[in-house]
Amino acid sequence: TIEAVALPPEPVFTIVGSVDASLDAGANVSVDLAGQRFSTTTDSQGRYELEVDSSASNSLVSLNAQGKGEQDVLILASALGDLKSLKSMAGNDARLTNNELAAVDVTTLTTAAVGLAMIENNGGLPSSFDELRSHSLNVNSEEMLIASAALELAVTDPNMQSMMLSGDASTMDLVTSVERLYHAVSSIQSEDASKLSNAKMD
Asked: Which of 31, 71, 99, 131 is the most buried (most CB within 10 A)?
């Protein structure tokens, strides 16, 4: 008789990356896919490993990283691509690292890219990577740098943060609103024009 051999379970697809150093350890990193939320937290080095056990293969995978406690207004994002393509990139070990895709590292620049694409998409996150890419084509590099620099100041400079994030607004609210961004940049320019230039160069 032939005995049935049980195949080892397939490894769960895991995104491995880091979050901007301005967010303290324990920041929440999450992905929402087809009504399911997958989440984890960062370690003391800002690194995270996020298991995404989903079959929503055509859905856009967009990471959100949110600070904890007093940093809860600091929300950063990074759009990675559709789940099927990401699993393919990850290869046999099912682990997607920054060697395969730089966007697993969530930064102010990746957040600016997501925010400006959302502005182009009337405020909503595009539902597919193709849609995201087409909206991103309408964003010029100078806009991207200015938005990223404003974000950089909002997450690293407490004075700038209180100036740019009025009420309970988050950094994501800042970068998904033309009005808020314009106001933030005007505030920075009137306070100290060199700050924006320096942040852009960083």
From this structure: 31
